[in-house]
Amino acid sequence: MQPIQMVDLTTQYERIRPAMDQAMLDVVRSGLYINGEAVAALTEDLRLYTGAKYVIPCANGTDALQIALMALDLHAGDEVIVPAFTYAASAEAIALLQLTPVLVDVDPKTFNIDVRKIEKAISSKTRAIIPVHLFGQTADMEPLMEIAQKYHLYVIEDNAQSIGSIYTFSSGIQKQAGTVGDIGTLSFFPTKNLGCYGDGGAMLTDDESLAGRLRMIASHGQSQKYRHERIGCNSRLDTLQAAVLRVKLRHLASYVFARRKAASAYNAGLKTVSWIETPECLPASTHVYHQYTIKIKNGQRDNVQQYLKTQGIPSTVYYPLPLQEQPAFRNIVRTSCDLNETRAICQSVLSLPMHTELEDKQIAKIMEEIKNYKL
Known about the structure:
alpha/beta, Aspartate Aminotransferase, domain 2, 13 helices, globular
């Protein structure tokens, strides 16, 4: 049995090496490293895959969030609602533009923003909501969109971790994660379900006017070469990464299948372990398992993690410190509730190995060692 890894990108590459090598070689031979043919082709591939009318590639997922906020023409001091349990980039993009992150607690079962608590966080300064589709499933978008429409708020979906997840509305209409709100953002960081071999990102929207603004901002605010209509930034997806993503996108369905298979095996193996809570799925959302994250009861998380390490089993804590307790955010965020669920989650979550190359015997080994642990 191969050593167990949190993510195994090397074996994944070996499975698709001929197509991947050819795609990268074609770019090198073309000499078009910026805005080459693969960028436009990927843009169309993603448009067809997601169902979004407009796809605007950019340099990374954090840029995607910042550009999305810039396109809304918000003003310093405006407030943007964001879940307290998320990676810092979700709130960082808000703060970089001198906007105020307003933290809302999360659902302890799905780890996503608790929609029931959003209205209490809205003030006269609130302009937007950023739901983060964490670990592979969407936030509960139907009631969230109803709130946004009621208060005339923009919605930017942080979909860095859940490309391919499907949300089903009560009417039966289904939409891809990232295509429900005004703008959706994607990250193609290497470990993501659709990851490149460096950094990359994209923005999705159905609004033609917003698409134009996003495109300009990502290219120094240019409407055409050397004509700068807005203050923008330099955020390009390079041609090599676009070529990599085009190859991987063709395999994304099989990658999701492999992740769901691994998650099903974890669920079956852990259901009898009384001190573990397995992840729950929102009924309206499919889960693509960017992470398989459990909760360890009785304050034993760190001890369990250390034990697994001694047995050659890696694990990771996403995320150990709530945003409101991070030094960079402590004095700039606003909160509207106690955020107790987020604090409890940060002290109990543990993510087990999850990737497309997990073998049945590796999962069996992980299950065996977890069950061998004695509280």
